[in-house]
Write a structure and sequence with these properties.
Blueprint lengths: L2 E3 L5 E2 L4 E5 L1 H9 L7 E5 L4 E10 L3 E11 L7 E7 L5 H12 L3 E6 L10 H21 L7 E2 L3 E2 H7 L5 E5 L8 H7 L8 E6 L7 H9 L3 E3 L8 H15 L7
Parallel strand pairs: 1-4, 7-8, 7-12, 8-9, 8-10, 11-12, 11-13
Antiparallel strand pairs: 2-3, 3-6, 4-5, 5-6
Length: about 250
């Protein structure tokens, strides 16, 4: 069943109807060729998801009647933010797509010393983020997410570090770290049940510089090893997120 996202204001609980507007209207009518009477899944991105039956399709909106309503159950119990050193070419798109499928909550593109990608101006930056957000939107629909991850405007490494104290724990994948792995770090945390938000720090091609590592450690970011093999930037985030979701999230069952 096709899945769509709305904001809570598009749900009329009194009339038991949902209005879908924007690009999804064309997608429903022209691409998917759905018709009156077809059922679709709708999520409000916050707490509730619905099964809706199409009552009316116009150029401006699709109106659904609510057939079923229940709480969202597809979101992980922990909030994980990815601080990704911006890689070259389409690697960022792959990272966004796959980490969205796995349950990431936010992706913060970070400009580091070894970041090669440059933005010509603010408009160029916003246009790139708009494309990345669409990739996250589509991946959220495909993977039956309850919420769409937010793709933030790219920020400097320094600003990202200043903002990361909102997380209960921050971990940075560092190839020169030899002793502390993610599993050992989690086991060492006495109040692990209090950890509800985690930041994952991944460098671009070439990794973080020594000065960047020192700066991260001074902000209480914990460095971890991912094992004896060096992972590519587009692989490292998947690996850490998978480990976290297995240990603290909802991968692997109860």
């Amino acid at each position: 069943m096709n899945r769509f996202f709305v904001v809570p204001s598009q749900v009329n609980q009194q009339a038991r109807t949902i209005s879908i507007v924007g690009d999804d209207v064309k997608h429903i009518g022209k691409v998917l060729r759905l018709v009156v009477g077809d059922l679709v899944e709708v999520c409000d991105g916050q707490a509730l998801e619905y099964i809706g039956r199409i009552d009316e399709i116009s150029k401006e909106q699709v109106t659904l009647s609510i057939e079923k309503q229940e709480n969202i159950f597809t979101e992980p119990p922990i909030q994980v933010r990815l601080y990704q050193g911006i890689p070259k070419a389409t690697k960022m798109e792959l990272i966004i797509q796959k980490t969205t499928e796995m349950g990431i909550s936010d992706i913060i593109p970070v400009m580091t010393d070894r970041t090669i990608v440059q933005f010509n101006n603010e408009k160029d930056r916003e246009k790139k983020v708009e494309r990345w957000q669409k990739i996250a939107d589509e991946a959220s629909k495909q993977s039956k997410r309850g919420k769409i991850p937010r793709i933030h405007i790219p920020m400097t490494y320094t600003k990202a570090l200043e903002a990361c104290n909102e997380n209960d724990l921050n971990v940075l994948a560092y190839e020169k770290e030899k002793t502390m792995g993610l599993k050992a770090l989690i086991a060492s945390l006495v109040e692990i049940t209090e950890v509800k938000s985690i930041g994952i720090w991944i460098g671009p091609e070439g990794g973080f510089t020594g000065k960047e590592i020192e700066k991260a450690l001074s902000h209480d970011v914990r460095s971890i090893t991912l094992g004896p093999r060096i992972l590519r930037t587009e692989t490292a985030g998947f690996a850490v997120l998978s480990m976290l979701m297995y240990e603290l999230g909802d991968l692997g069952g109860a």
